Predict the 3D structure of the following.
Amino acid sequence: MSARRVLTPWACCLLLLAKTAVAADAIYETPEAAAADPDFTLQGEYAGDRLGMQVAALGDGEFLVVSYPGGLPGAGWTGKDKQTVEADRDEVKEFVAMLKKAERSSPTLGAKPPQDAVTLFDGTKASLDKHWKPGAKITADGLLMQGCTSLDTFRDFTLHLEFRTPFMPKARGQGRGNSGVYYQGRYETQVL
């Protein structure tokens, strides 16, 4: 075994979708489809000199708004005194009027894997056949679907995972695109 094994599904986004009892018209599986809902474009993160705000759509023009003194988590928030309120679309527009919408993404998003990496999935059927147990499936546009297990096993590793969850504003809790990644058959990172 090499000194460093890297478990990486590079060059793809995993589409991890959970089926729920939410009305079908409230589930948008792609950002392009979600853009038809005005709440989708308003939700997100906003930042100012001394305040950060996260806005999550709840459906029908209602939102959950979390404000952070000092800035967004990981970008200035003091770790104390966050406030959570529910607000309608007009109130949210007032809240964020003096803030700038923040577009943050991982610095490793789309990065090339290290030379010694094991790329478990790259969006192709060949990688599916090589690294995944029978029954693993991909979508028509090359995304790995839920419910699959790799043939490869690892002890110490670094995982790079890219994923997309559906926009489901009317769902709550684990009904909001609930999925996850299991490691070594026992540990899970929740993707919600």
Notes: The helical segments are 31-34, 38-42, 89-96, 125-131.
